[in-house]
Write a structure and sequence with these properties.
By secondary structure, the chain is mostly helical. It is built from four helices and no strands. It has one domain.
Length: 62
């Protein structure tokens, strides 16, 4: 199974979600924290893809 690498924006959002005081670059250097940060970022990417903005703007609720 191939995992998609999260982009920088989703990494920053995941960093805010984790409420960690360490900078993102320092977290990516640490192997254990890198795994956690990327997992949360991937979860955010899945949620981000589920929202269809045009459908919401058209008020098309199925």
């Amino acid at each position: 199974m191939v995992r998609t690498e999260p982009d920088r924006a989703s990494l920053e959002i995941a960093h805010r979600m984790l409420r960690v005081t360490a900078p993102i670059d320092e977290m990516l250097k640490n192997p254990a924290l890198r795994v956690v940060l990327r997992a949360v970022a991937r979860r955010h990417m899945k949620r981000r893809d589920q929202v269809d903005v045009k459908k919401r703007q058209a008020n098309d609720n199925d």
